[in-house]
Specification:
This protein is mostly helical and about 425 residues long. The protein has helices at about 1-15, 15-40, 45-50, 55-80, 95-120, 130-160, 170-195, 200-220, 230-260, 260-265, 265-295, 310-345, 355-385, 390-420.
């Protein structure tokens, strides 16, 4: 018995920094996601007027995390390896990552608008025109992207100066900032489409031209000292995987669009949804960043079956996950109760507190189990195929977890709701 107690104490002592920094970042991310949920609730008019808007919303949130989460992971790895410097010199870590993030933001935002519109049109959802979808995606993506770029650089600068392990905080904080920033930017773009439609096509055309120019500028670069330009390498290697991830995020958005009526009818669930999806994204980003850094440093053996260090990281993820899933369930319930009191509604809450916790914790356990093994095997396979896990692991795991989280959340919801209502 004492041996078990000692093992547990050593486990928490050994990972004290991870729990302190990780939990703080996850709580901040959860609060931000709940704010985004409140914003989503206020966007009900746009969600109804623009069919397919739910697809665009969840795709945009997922893509911001994929692009800037991967950037944060690359910066974190450079700190571990001693190559990081806070300088914009040509060829430096910061310069190449900034250029790559800007280029990827333009390219992926354009692709997102086209693919989202294509799905809406294919399913005969009577959506808006392709120009409107591209404008909302590009405008919302670019505005949010520039804000997240500075957030990422701020995290890197402060983390480097204070000698933090940014692998434990970057993914949740980027997810938090992405949730807070992306939703208002999409709201602004959607408002512009509905109120100033005559400017949509010319402005979209200008953004498309600028996207092409950025791509040409980077892709025509010549190798330096027989090595491919780093920005060019990131762009070439990341774009295909981000497009694949975009398709996964679109499918996740489609799942949420399919249950739009149920979510709009239950305020607590609509508020909770972005936070739940964000939690899976943030946890997988944290775990993937740690595993990628360990692989780069040679402290994690690349093997088909996870080893002791991997399972220790899985345990950390379970603990962090259950605490934060319970937290967002509690806050979502309290926010819904407060809104009912403010509106002086006589209608009872659709779900009571134990029911809310039962839904989110059940879905949380399933989601965390999937993300643990998915994060490990994506990092291992990326390494075995000579790919940089920093470029590929976070986008793949984040987008996969967006889809998994959406399917698990809706599945658990459909299973529990008949029992509770």
């Amino acid at each position: 018995m004492m041996d078990r107690v000692t093992v547990v104490k050593e486990f928490f002592s050994r990972n004290e920094t991870v729990f302190k920094m990780g939990l703080t970042a996850l709580v901040m991310a959860s609060v931000a996601a709940l704010v985004a949920g409140l914003f989503l609730e206020s966007m009900e008019e746009f969600i109804i007027v623009i069919p397919g808007m739910m697809i665009l919303i969840y795709s945009a949130i997922g893509m911001r995390g994929n692009i800037f989460g991967a950037m944060g992971s690359r910066l974190g790895t450079s700190m571990h390896m001693g190559t990081f410097e806070m300088s914009l010199r040509k060829g430096g870590v910061i310069r190449t990552n900034v250029e790559a993030a800007i280029a990827l933001t333009f390219v992926v935002s354009l692709a997102m608008g086209i693919i989202s519109w294509g799905v809406v049109d294919l399913l005969n959802m009577e959506g808006t025109s392709i120009w409107n979808f591209m404008f909302i995606s590009l405008t919302g993506g670019i505005l949010a992207g520039f804000v997240l770029l500075f957030v990422n650089l701020g995290i890197a600068k402060i983390g480097h100066e204070r000698e933090w392990d940014t692998d434990n905080i970057t993914a949740p904080l980027i997810a938090a900032a992405g949730d807070i920033v992306t939703m208002p930017m999409l709201f602004l773009a959607a408002w512009f489409v509905l109120n100033h439609s005559e400017y949509v096509m010319p402005l979209t055309t200008l953004m498309i031209i600028f996207t092409v120019l950025i791509m040409v500028w980077i892709l025509q670069r010549r190798p330096v000292k027989s090595r491919m330009d780093t920005t060019k390498r990131i762009l070439i290697q990341s774009t295909p995987i981000l497009i694949i991830c975009l398709v996964l995020d679109v499918i996740a958005g489609l799942v949420m669009e399919g249950e739009k009526d149920s979510l709009l009818a239950l305020t607590a669930l609509l508020i909770l949804t972005p936070a739940f999806l964000n939690e899976g994204n943030a946890l997988s980003g944290m775990l993937t960043s740690r595993l990628s850094s360990m692989i780069h440093l040679g402290t994690l053996k690349v093997q088909m079956l996870p080893g002791k260090k991997s399972f220790e990281n899985f345990a950390i993820t379970y603990i962090l996950g259950m605490i934060t899933y319970a937290f967002i369930g509690t806050i979502a319930f309290l926010l819904t109760w407060a809104m009912q009191q403010y509106n002086q509604s006589d209608l009872p809450l659709a779900l009571n507190y134990p029911e809310m916790l039962a839904i989110i914790l059940t879905a949380g356990v399933i989601t965390t189990t999937v993300l643990n093994f998915l994060s490990y095997y994506v990092a291992v396979l990326a390494t075995r195929y000579n790919l940089d896990p920093d470029d590929h692991s976070i986008p793949i795991t984040s987008s996969s977890m967006d889809l998994v989280s959406a399917l698990v959340f809706i599945g658990v919801l459909l299973m529990f709701l008949p029992m509770f209502t």
